[in-house]
Queue: 2 jobs
Job 1
Amino acid sequence: MKNIILFVAYTCFLTHATQAQSIETRPGIWQYFGTPASDPVIDGRLLNFTWAEIEPSDNSWNWAGFDKGLSDGVKDGLPVIFMVYTKQDAPGWIYNAGVPKVTETDNRGKVIGYSPYYADADYKFYFKRMIQKVHSHVETLSPSVRNLVIGVQGCYGSTGDYISYAGNVPAQYALDGKQFLELYKEFSQYYYDEYKNTSPKIYLMSNPRNQGSDAALWTEDNCPGWQKAGTLGKGFQLNDEVTKYGWLYNLMNVPRANGEYMRVRSELAAANTSAGWWKKSPYKNMFATMCYGIMWGLDWTNQTYNEIKDAGNDSAFVFFNKYAGQKEASKSTNAVCALKDVLDAADAVRFPASVYGNVSQSNTQRYVNIANKYASKGALLEDVRSATLSEMDNIRAAGINDVGWNLLPGNYERYLHQLNANQTSTGYWNIQSADPNSMYGKFGRGFDIANNMTALYFDVDNAFLANKPLAAKYQVTIEVTYLDQGKGSWQLFYDAKSSKDKASVTVKCTNSNKWKKATITLPDANFANRGKAGSDFSIRSAGKNQNIIFSVVELSRSAGSVGGKVFNTSMQTTTNTSAVAENKAAVLSVNPNPAQQTFYVQSADGKPIKQLLIYNVSGRLVFQKNVTAVRLAVNRNEIGGASGIYFIKAQTDAGMLTGRVIIQ
């Protein structure tokens, strides 16, 4: 039975209002398919139905199961998104009516499944008719059900997957990638047009290809609703995420011209949690996955009934609900930095070929050499072949892999950034504590006294502070999760209104070997980057000459202190237009992004840039230029030439603007 204290904690983040419009797009933990679970951590449900069940014969409709499923899904007032499966779940009668049935085989000729011929004109007619009939029926439901239906995911392939075949098919039915993309566009446009004028709004959730930007960008331009991001909720530290970041992050986090954000879901299915690497530390992995989703800006993570009912996941789910949906920095109540180091075999600067081996994704010895370098800090490499392959192979790995390829550097951060991370602190992996079921410890950072790494420095995102110092306008709370190991101590310092490097509390370890949280309230924070190393606040070693490991640093403020709409309990798209204009004006335009050689920086409002600053991922200033120009060109050689992510700050008359660029 779940602890009552946890239930009280949930109520801080959940407001299950009765008015449909106030909760229609609520972010957080959503239940995946199956029997509806009653649990205070759930913010909504995903429901699935089959075309075969709904239309058992040509134009004959059976709504009994559909209606019951929707009624059961919303019975406790939670919103739902529904799906109608096709492919193997299409009704059998369509084949008797002329739609070709395509047999799918493996490379040895064994039949592994079947599919309708998607390009067939009859199939298109029946499929589109089903879409229209389902929508018409949804509009006849009682308001207590209809008003809580907030989305429909367009299903074109197996279950909700991107439209495709599995295996080999006869030549006359074969379709290439371009043809599948055109079918995806045709069906998506039809679905979108069918639901675009609904009231209350039912959004189309699209599922473009997991790899590559073509379908996702087309969808955003032509069917601007919501999207599924395949792997973002299935794990963390996945290969080639730098490339994906270059086209997906802004889609998820920059508002459209009307102020709306694209909302995104992903799911953690049983197949993911049964992988060898996951089973070794399931609660640590769940928390790391939640941190990964928060960093990306994931709005919903779908969890199975079993995961929701496992009390060991409660703390990770509450943590995700705390941050989910907060996409407008200046109106968000929380900022977080989940501490970690990244061992990227593609990083030729940190891991030169002369020491670690040829820089090649398939060079397994290079991965082994990197892992061995950090083995004393807990880094593991247990399935090296999977570590060199695709993100789906990473998710299915038989063992723990702390080395990968083309990985996003640094911590999992949202509005709170660590400065000079690798110069002032060190990474730790697979950290053991007195509680083997703790969610903390998959990653961490901390002191390395012997190598003069004695501090962690933090910068609160300028946009979070509305691009001006806080000046003690309201109090903020900092929470530091640390491993209480040994007898060392640490102290918090911060940029206060009256002192640029003010000392705060000192925390002494008691050697319990448990993860503990220190909560520090600052009534007089200024946060103008006047602290040591240009920080807003810092955590420093304070005696006993002992190393201390930290897991998460969080900063919070009340919703009333920032004003405006805060998206931690509702994601309504009603937006103050003046606030939207202010937010967009505070955005830097960086093109191309990712960049190979030269990129261009300009402010979204066209105001001249007076000073341009560029920092590498470790927080070191690598470029500074005083100018008066609307648009500046920067060559990669001017910032050192290395591939990776760089943070940009530009001073204009409107204030300090921020952005990022990926150099490939």
Note: Confidence is low (pLDDT under 50) at residues 1-23, 564-586.
Job 2
Amino acid sequence: MKKSNPTVGTSVAHLFQGLFFIMLGMIVCIPLNAHASSGNTHFPLYPAIQDNVTFWKSIYSRYSLNTAVIHDQNDLSIIYEVVTKIDDSVPGAGKANKLLIERKKRHYSAILRKLSRTAPATAEERRITAMFSGSNRQQRMAAAAESIRSQTGQRERFLAGVIRSGAYLPTIKQVLRSYGLPEDLAYLPHVESSFNTEAYSKVGASGIWQFTKSTGKSYLRIDQAVDERSDPIIAAHAAAKYLKNSYSQLGTWPLALTSYNYGTAGMKRALNEKGSYERIFAEYDKGYFKFASRNFYSEFLAALQCAKELERKPGVRLDQPLPTRTVTLKASADIRQIRKHFGVSQRNLERLNPALRSEVLTGKRQVPKGYALRLPAPASAVTPIIAAKGKSSNGSALTTRDTVHQVRRGETLTAIAGKYGTSTQELARINGLDSSVIRIGQKLRITDQPGTLQTATVAAPVKIHAATTKLTGSRSRLAVHKTTIHEGKRYGKIQVQPGESLNLLAKWTATPTTKLQRLNNLGQGGRINAGRDLVLVFDKVSVNHFHQKRQQFHLKSKADDLTSVNPAG
């Protein structure tokens, strides 16, 4: 046998050792580019979308609602200007801001067209030229002249959404885990709706998960009595089913999440053509795959990071879930009977059951058979049961008798109706009144529901994190809470909502701004942030008048800013 040369053997060993470490380095570097920068293997931060994620993080955490970012829609690292808009409380602000932004876009478009033909001559032109590099700079500027876009800042709205999310996140994460999905998907509603249960988009998408009616009917109950899209927890199950199905067909979470905006079938076509998320992001431009779809995954990553950062801040207090119990109705029941039987306020029923439509909540329709009604969890472990055929489980009657009210001096039909949670028209109908005139001592029947409530199966009280919400939707968030009368004046507490200012609140209550500043120990600047509690005085206008003005303002804001549900929409 021929002996091997030790020198040659050592050299070969060193060669293989060097190759091994080179290959090891290459293997380690590949996932670092795609995954490590996001710290999440489910949701990689690809280098191609880094600028987009940075842009959306700024929109969510840096730029306020009164700013508009003028930028290139294809390269989000190019920002031409950040414009300060006129305060929404100023009359005509909406129209003036629209004109201002359009003028800015035309200004930069004209500069870019000029720079695509000639050298820069002014400081502003040199600043814009510096944003473009490479031998094809002029061609890129010519294309950029046609792709200028504006984006309103979302800082206050995003913060309000993070505060609201505290009421839902623990349960939603539990739902996602039960389907074997990453629990960070629970942060998707930040992109879709800012966790606003009453969010409604221009294409008819509803609830915090923004299901359209057509898609929602595949997973949820949507009819004249119930719209489960409005229930964050029920809709979370639907979102989990949709996302799980999309992931099984598309193979990655960037693709599955983008399908939430563009559709699973559309993403399958894009994947068949381009082969990967990164190529789809960079090259795909067919059908409705435009700015919103291309940016959807980047927005999710940005929202995920911003929300978690805000959750860690000591000054941010998240809403907390309420402990609840669930009663499944085996027959339909009137909401007023339910309210009286369980001793639950109308407000609690509404906020714990956002899927019930207004006609059910006002008594025009009954709560349907099979509906899982949420109620506040009682302090006692004893769970009441609604009796069948007028009998309780131990044989005693559980009927709902008519309430009779005897009219006192100074009372009106409207005041009595409000006291019992019914309408003036309903009260007049029940008592056969032709007008609203009533007399002292007259006895009024409050309800004409003579029957009994039907059998209900009661679920065991759930854990605190399995509750629904603390303050769901604008019905509760726009309400005035803790009203009291002091020295003949009525006071109440509100929570400031995105877009509101001290000047607006002063206008709606006919109160001098300085008085509100003193009442709430505010400085001379008078700036207030969304989520802050404020005390208001109602000595010039009624609480109802204020509430109507406030609702009108926010309804108009939704109409004027249709992109607020999904900023990239």
Note: Residues 1-13, 19-39, 379-402, 448-475 have pLDDT under 50 and may be disordered.
